[in-house]
Amino acid sequence: MLSRRNWVLVAVALFLIASLAACAAPVAVPDRDIEISVDTALAAQEMLMAGMMMGGAELTESEFSSLLTVLMDQNSGEANPVDAIKVWFEPGNEVMAQVELVEGVLPETFGGNTLDLSGTLDVDGGQLKLMLDGASAGGFGVSGALLAPVSDQINAALAGLGAVPVDVETAEGSVSVGIGM
């Protein structure tokens, strides 16, 4: 029979194992430069609106990142902890993102104010969705269920695009979105 002390040790060991199971290697983002601006976001929005008539649109990393950053800012209010979101596209609908946070969101021990994310883009229920499979900050990586709140926040911003995507395909440096009415 286990004593009370042994139960505590077993509980602590299980908690430690569960915590370590969520750890992963840090996400490495590409070194391609991405410029973010409101003008680029507006141009991307116009391209998507024209794409609704034409059946699709292709956006560069800068256009997509600018649009996502502006949408996140508009939909999150004054308490928005995000300065910018840079998104890199790779073949096979793979994406890497770097979320630049405002000063003080992450503890100083993380050595910076960025979250690096990796995942895939897909269309689900008529909405463009990002399914994260990895995240890191300051060399500390996580995976699994811990990423759900981050995915939800990004997907809420993507839902604000206004178009109804029917398919998505990425190439190095760009994303093509098939758009329906």
How would you characterize this protein structure?
Helix content is 35%, strand content 35%. The protein has 181 residues and is an alpha+beta fold. The longest helix is centred in the first third of the chain and has 18 residues.
Order of helices and strands: HEHEHEEEEEHEE
> Biggest sheet, open or closed, and with what strands and sense?
6 strands, antiparallel
Cα gyration radius (Å): 19 Å
Distance between the termini: 66 Å
Features:
single chain; 181 residues; alpha+beta; six-stranded antiparallel sheet; three-stranded antiparallel sheet; 4 helices; 9 strands; 35% helix; globular; disordered N terminus
What topology does this entry show?
Blueprint: H1 4-21, E1 23-24, H2 38-54, E2 56-60, H3 61-76, E3 82-90, E4 94-101, E5 114-124, E6 127-137, E7 140-142, H4 148-159, E8 164-171, E9 174-180
Helix pairs in contact: 2-3, 3-4
How would you summarize this macromolecular structure in one to three sentences?
Helix content is 35%, strand content 35%. With 181 residues, the chain is an alpha+beta fold.
